[in-house]
Amino acid sequence: MNGYVSVIAPSPEPRAERLAALERAFRTLPERYLGAEPGFDATWHIVLGDVGHTWEVRCTTHGARVRKGVTNRRPDVVIGTDSQTWMALRRGDMSGIVAFGERLLYARGKIDLAVGFEGLFRRDNGRPPLLRIHDVELPGRRVSALTMGEGPDVLLLHGLGGAKSSFFDAAAALSRHYRVHALDLPGFGSSSKPAIAPYDARYFARTVRETMDVLGIDRAHLAGNSMGGRVAIELALRHPERVAGLALLCPAVAFVRRSYHPIVRLLRPELGLLPHHFTRRMVENSFWSLFADRDRVDPSMADIVIDEFQRTYSSPGARMAFLSSARNIYLEAPFGREGFYPRLAELQAPALFVWGSHDTLVPAAFGRHVERWLPGAEQIVLEGCGHVPQVERAVQTTGLLQRFFAQIDALGALPRRAQAAA
């Protein structure tokens, strides 16, 4: 709270000087513009409440245009903040994700365009932006990624029905020591949604590995929530040399009791192609059910996530990806030759499992199966926490990630098999 007050406190400079500085900052945006891919066309309205002015910024493949006031063109995003925060963003004193996390600005519209705005422009003295949202082109699919920070690489993988936005707070904190990449898996968020794709752990793990190849990442720490945790495990099993450490937040491990197995097998993901939609009330109820203490979740953030979910799942491809992914998670065999838990016993990377005591989707009781098959893994239960600890317990969860990754980096931890070979 103190940080919030100090940033938006009235500026000591006269109003006229403040407005002149703002005018210069907006006027120089076109010459700082880094360009965009072919066909890009987006409009932002920047509302600075403390000075009572709005600027319209339109970026296309051909350049950026800025005007004070607004036209009749409907904006893709509205960003609201105060003049001091805006100037701090333009200087690169903080990133938009940090400002958003500290509730120094609000956004309405497509979240990737809101967060990615600063990545379109150089900072003062030609310095690169603090973050960028970019597309990684892979055969048959496209992955949307947020990249920020410098240092060893960390990949953040969201859960079923989520997107990289669920890791924004973690990305901002980890970027102080790491180069962080938060990904939208195919079928989710701003990534492409192939009509023909298996949407299982193996497919997603291959996508993450190929994304690492394109980004020039030889080895990285992985943090995954729910389905993202299952994907991280699969990548570590298939390519242990690419994974330094695994932080698994309420990971979607295999269900041992599968009472609805015959029914789920009959349900076809292709039903998602039929026209239908999720009402806002349905989405709200599902969203809030993920948390044990809703008072820990900012309502404005909840509105953004709910709006984004509804916008994304108006697409038949997104609905099919959601249903297919959910079906694959539920139907995965827990035991047997190719069962999840016997395979888990082969995991080589150091692993941290974080469970929520009040998680109704993947209860903390699954920890006993992990203990049996992977006794060397560290397990922590967060009391009073639901299924998305990086949101509900952002500070605590990020602290666990930082401690775990730092320990691996300090000790130069190798996969167990590599240690035995050495």
Task: Walk me through this protein's architecture.
α9 links the parallel β10 (220-225) and β11 (243-249). α11 (280-288) crosses α12. This protein has an 8-stranded mixed β-sheet with strand order 6-7-9-8-10-11-12-13, with helices on both faces. It is globular. Residues 1-9, 259-266 and 414-422 have low confidence and may be disordered. With 422 residues, the chain is α/β, with parallel strands linked by helices. The longest helix has 18 residues, at 394-411. It folds into 2 domains: 2-126, 2-Layer Sandwich (Nonspecific Lipid-transfer Protein, Chain A); 132-421, Alpha/Beta hydrolase fold, catalytic domain (Rossmann fold, 3-Layer(aba) Sandwich). Helices cover 39% and strands 19% of the residues. It has 18 helices and 13 strands. The protein has helices at residues 2-8, 15-27, 29-32, 83-91, 96-101, 111-116, 168-174, 201-215, 227-238, 261-266, 280-288, 299-312, 316-331, 340-344, 367-373, 389-392, 394-411, 416-421, and strands spanning 41-48, 53-60, 63-68, 77-81, 106-109, 131-138, 141-148, 153-157, 179-184, 220-225, 243-249, 351-356, 378-382.
Write the layout of secondary structure elements.
Layout: H1 2-8, H2 15-27, H3 29-32, E1 41-48, E2 53-60, E3 63-68, E4 77-81, H4 83-91, H5 96-101, E5 106-109, H6 111-116, E6 131-138, E7 141-148, E8 153-157, H7 168-174, E9 179-184, H8 201-215, E10 220-225, H9 227-238, E11 243-249, H10 261-266, H11 280-288, H12 299-312, H13 316-331, H14 340-344, E12 351-356, H15 367-373, E13 378-382, H16 389-392, H17 394-411, H18 416-421
Parallel strand pairs: 1-4, 8-9, 8-10, 10-11, 11-12, 12-13
Antiparallel strand pairs: 1-2, 2-3, 4-5, 6-7, 7-9
Helix pairs in contact: 7-17, 8-9, 11-12
